[in-house]
């Protein structure tokens, strides 16, 4: 059985690139159909993320011209992650696999064939990973690499150099639908769902037209969101800092007492140093403990699934 593929493409103010890349997506899909990789009823879904330009008019035009193109439009701009999720949830019940990809032509569309092959080899999730960033500017490259390192150091597990170009099977999407959080960071959430996954590598190109919606500020925002929506490690760091401070304070107190004994201090200095050191560390440790509870509340509030079953010997 050939799987039915839906390609999910978020679009925000992309009137310059959409007319160029839409035919490329169609060509690629037809190529995969000719090769017998995906079924004839596969489709391309554009998700208009509240664009302020003519993006939606272009999408409706494409849908009229060719039944393979379909579109949905969000009531307002909600950001890339929400647009991708909206698209994935829209199609999860009518397809076997989805591939999400940006509409700016930066990600090599021919890698889709390898992704589908990996799916046919038994993988439910296939991450598109950039093999190099030669075409990115030095600045974009270093900041992007820093972004992945920071995320991993802070306890948010993400696949290095993988953005949101990936194949996800309908089976995994059904489980992803149970992740009810509103702060979305799909790169970190998809690995949490589990199931067999692999990666395919591709070269990343330059944007065909228009401009990036992810300048440094937004990228930092995304990193911050990624960390704070996936990990409670920053809260733990407060407790660690508290204990480190306690240690330093201990040394500080001894030093203050010794200075006092050897008579190098003015009256009152020792007691002030003593009180400052003591309360500083007590406060940080207390904050750390409170943080630990807040972290627990935070994870509970997310209401994520406690288990996900991937296989059964019996039929359901
Ligand atoms: N995008 C979106 N909503 C937004 C910002 C971006 O749907 O609020 C889409 C955009 O149209 C593109 C993809 O997300 O298809 C990635 O954006 P962009 O190419 O600007 O990011 P970069 O590749 O520079 O990181
Ligand atoms: Mg881009």
Global geometry:
elongated
Give a list of the ligands.
uridine-5'-diphosphate, magnesium ion
Low-confidence stretches: none
Structural class: alpha/beta
What fold name stands as the CATH topology of the largest domain?
Spore Coat Polysaccharide Biosynthesis Protein SpsA, Chain A
Strand order of the largest sheet: 3-2-1-4-6-5-7
- Number of structural units classed as domains: 2
The string of secondary-structure elements, in order, is EHEHEHEHEHEHHEHHH
The name of the CATH architecture of the largest domain is Alpha-Beta Complex
Overall pLDDT confidence: 89
- The separation of the N and C termini measures 21 Å
Say which CATH homologous superfamily of the largest domain is assigned: Spore Coat Polysaccharide Biosynthesis Protein SpsA, Chain A
CA-atom Rg in angstroms: 25 Å
Highest CATH level, the class of the largest domain: Alpha Beta
Amount of beta strand: 5-15%
Q: Helical proportion?
A: 40-55%
Count of distinct strands: 7
- Per DSSP, the total helix count is 10
Q: How many strands, which pairing sense, and closed or not: the largest β-sheet?
A: 7 strands, mixed
Report on the structure:
The structure is a single chain. The protein starts with a strand and ends in a 14-residue tail after the last helix. It folds into two domains: 5-230 and 304-312, Spore Coat Polysaccharide Biosynthesis Protein SpsA, Chain A, CATH 3.90.550.10; 233-302. It is an alpha/beta fold and 316 residues long. It has ten helices and seven strands. Bound molecules: uridine-5'-diphosphate and magnesium ion. The site of uridine-5'-diphosphate (UDP) has 16 residues, from strand 1 and helix 3.
């Amino acid at each position: 059985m050939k799987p039915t593929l839906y390609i999910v493409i978020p679009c925000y103010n992309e009137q310059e690139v959409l007319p160029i890349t839409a035919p490329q997506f169609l060509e690629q899909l037809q190529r995969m159909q000719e090769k017998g990789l995906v079924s004839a009823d596969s489709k391309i879904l554009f998700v208009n993320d509240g664009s302020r330009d003519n993006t939606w008019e272009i999408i409706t035009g494409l849908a009229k011209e060719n039944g393979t193109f379909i579109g949905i439009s969000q009531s307002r701009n909600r950001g890339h992650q929400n647009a991708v999720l909206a698209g994935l949830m829209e199609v999860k019940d009518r397809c076997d696999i989805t591939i999400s990809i940006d509409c700016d032509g930066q990600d090599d569309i021919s890698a889709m064939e390898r992704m589908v092959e990996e799916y046919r080899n038994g993988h439910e999730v296939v991450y598109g990973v950039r093999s190099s960033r030669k075409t990115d500017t030095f600045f974009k490259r270093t900041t992007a690499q820093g972004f992945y390192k920071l995320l991993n150091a802070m306890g948010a597990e993400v696949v290095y150099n993988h953005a949101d170009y990936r194949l996800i099977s309908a089976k995994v999407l059904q489980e992803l639908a149970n992740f009810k959080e509103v702060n979305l960071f799909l790169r970190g959430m998809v690995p949490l769902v589990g199931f067999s996954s692999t990666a395919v590598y591709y070269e990343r190109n330059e944007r065909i037209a228009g401009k990036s919606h992810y300048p440094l500020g937004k990228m930092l925002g995304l990193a911050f969101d990624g960390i704070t929506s996936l990990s409670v490690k920053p809260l733990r760091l407060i407790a660690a800092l508290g204990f480190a401070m306690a240690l330093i304070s201990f040394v500080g107190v001894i030093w203050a007492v010794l200075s006092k004994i050897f008579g190098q201090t003015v009256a009152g200095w020792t007691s002030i140093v003593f009180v400052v050191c003591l309360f500083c560390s007590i406060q940080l440790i207390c904050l750390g403990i409170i943080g630990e509870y807040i972290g627990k509340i935070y994870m509970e509030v997310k209401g994520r699934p406690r288990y996900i079953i991937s296989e059964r010997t019996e039929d359901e």
